[in-house]
Amino acid sequence: MTTHVRIVGAGLIGTSLGIALSNKGFRVSLVDPSPTAVRLARDLRAGEIADDAMPPPDVVAVAAPPDVAARVVVTELNRWPDAVVTDTASVKESILRVVLDSGADASRYVGSHPMAGRERSGAAAARGDLFDGRAWVVVPHEGSTEAAVRLVRSLAVAVGSAVSVMPAHEHDEAVAAVSHVPQLASSIVAACLRDLPDTAVGLAGPGIRDVTRIAASDPRLWTQILAGNAPAVRDVMRHVRADVDAVIGALDELVEADGHGSLGTLSRVLEAGNLGHARIPGKHGSAPAAYGVVSVVVPDEPGSLARLLTDMGNAGINLEDLHLEHGLGQAVGVAEISVVPASVEPLLTELARLGWRVHD
Ligand SMILES: NC(=O)C1=CN([C@@H]2O[C@H](COP(=O)(O)OP(=O)(O)OC[C@H]3O[C@@H](n4cnc5c(N)ncnc54)[C@H](O)[C@@H]3O)[C@@H](O)[C@H]2O)C=CC1
Ligand SMILES: O=C(O)C(=O)Cc1ccc(O)cc1
């Protein structure tokens, strides 16, 4: 029997989920207080617009903003007495508390959180492959039924995600460190660029782009996420403050005194960063892939990139990842090609022989 998923909130996450589930043969119905959002989601093939003539859903996925998600979950639990209800909000404990206190049948509620998103909100930014290969946290509570957990897990698996199961408090502590504080750090660094002269901003390279990519995120959404996970975010930010204070202290010493020992402090902060960075897993939570990166200068001409990839293929070298750096108004870009370490030297030699400008 076809599983009917009702998606409440047809923005970036709800519409992406609708497209992905529809592609996998689920029946999807869509609801949103914004008629424009729900029509756009339908036009993007995320599902049908829900109406009262439809059979009841088997599962409801609430993809509404975090500050209303708990209320919507409670409404949906009460409205559909046989449906499992989940939500995709980026915080879990504060929502669970409201659901448990509401008197609704919480045994059918299992929280969840896809660790996939974009800097843009709204249905127009949706993508059917958003969740493919990404982590998806399933967050049961003590009263959740096994059947409800299984159903929520099956949705995540259907859209290509790798499921982790953990309780709400553990989820909130984890995402404070891997998602919420990184968002703040990115925003704080990007804010330093606001008043820089154009000549300084014009020097921006890949480093600042990497660090500030998520600073373009929606402030309304993120204010709600940070407020909804305040205790855990505050604890991580205290660690950040201790490191920032140590760095400022070391720099003060270098500026004002002989700076004895301060280089050690700077080096320790940077080395600790190396250790943290090395722990970031690759796809599906596997160990970090130790690829070598070869940078190739690519002329901004039709067919250049295709020619490069063909040359690689002809050399029998497999592409593991590709990142393009392309400065505005520049006649060339830089293709950063990831390959297994044993392929770095042969690739450098072969591409150089064919006339490409290469760097490792
Ligand atoms: N944006 C991201 O990268 C990620 C977001 N999430 C979570 O998913 C949820 C949705 O986020 P986005 O899709 O990015 O937001 P969005 O702003 O793109 O979409 C939210 C949608 O919910 C609708 N909505 C507002 N109030 C509602 C209500 N009372 N009932 C039903 N729908 C309502 C809005 O009209 C909008 O279409 C949030 O809880 C967020 O924390 C989870 C993972 C990633
Ligand atoms: O852009 C990224 O790297 C993300 O990881 C996006 C994201 C944003 C919010 C979430 O709650 C989960 C994931």
Automatic annotation (TrEMBL):
<dbReference type="InterPro" id="IPR008927">
    <property type="entry name" value="6-PGluconate_DH-like_C_sf"/>
</dbReference>
<dbReference type="Pfam" id="PF02153">
    <property type="entry name" value="PDH_N"/>
</dbReference>
<dbReference type="InterPro" id="IPR046825">
    <property type="entry name" value="PDH_C"/>
</dbReference>
<dbReference type="Pfam" id="PF20463">
    <property type="entry name" value="PDH_C"/>
</dbReference>
<keyword id="KW-0067">ATP-binding</keyword>
<feature type="domain" description="ACT">
    <location>
        <begin position="293"/>
        <end position="360"/>
    </location>
</feature>
<keyword id="KW-0057">Aromatic amino acid biosynthesis</keyword>
<keyword id="KW-0436">Ligase</keyword>
<feature type="domain" description="Biotin carboxylation">
    <location>
        <begin position="24"/>
        <end position="360"/>
    </location>
</feature>
<dbReference type="InterPro" id="IPR036291">
    <property type="entry name" value="NAD(P)-bd_dom_sf"/>
</dbReference>
<keyword id="KW-0560">Oxidoreductase</keyword>
<feature type="domain" description="Prephenate/arogenate dehydrogenase">
    <location>
        <begin position="3"/>
        <end position="285"/>
    </location>
</feature>
<dbReference type="InterPro" id="IPR011764">
    <property type="entry name" value="Biotin_carboxylation_dom"/>
</dbReference>
<dbReference type="InterPro" id="IPR046826">
    <property type="entry name" value="PDH_N"/>
</dbReference>
<comment type="pathway">
    <text>Amino-acid biosynthesis; L-tyrosine biosynthesis; (4-hydroxyphenyl)pyruvate from prephenate (NAD(+) route): step 1/1.</text>
</comment>
<dbReference type="InterPro" id="IPR003099">
    <property type="entry name" value="Prephen_DH"/>
</dbReference>
<dbReference type="InterPro" id="IPR045865">
    <property type="entry name" value="ACT-like_dom_sf"/>
</dbReference>
<keyword id="KW-0520">NAD</keyword>
<keyword id="KW-0827">Tyrosine biosynthesis</keyword>
<comment type="similarity">
    <text>Belongs to the prephenate/arogenate dehydrogenase family.</text>
</comment>
<keyword id="KW-0547">Nucleotide-binding</keyword>
<keyword id="KW-0028">Amino-acid biosynthesis</keyword>
<dbReference type="InterPro" id="IPR050812">
    <property type="entry name" value="Preph/Arog_dehydrog"/>
</dbReference>
<dbReference type="InterPro" id="IPR002912">
    <property type="entry name" value="ACT_dom"/>
</dbReference>
<protein>
    <recommendedName>
        <fullName>Prephenate dehydrogenase</fullName>
        <ecNumber>1.3.1.12</ecNumber>
    </recommendedName>
</protein>
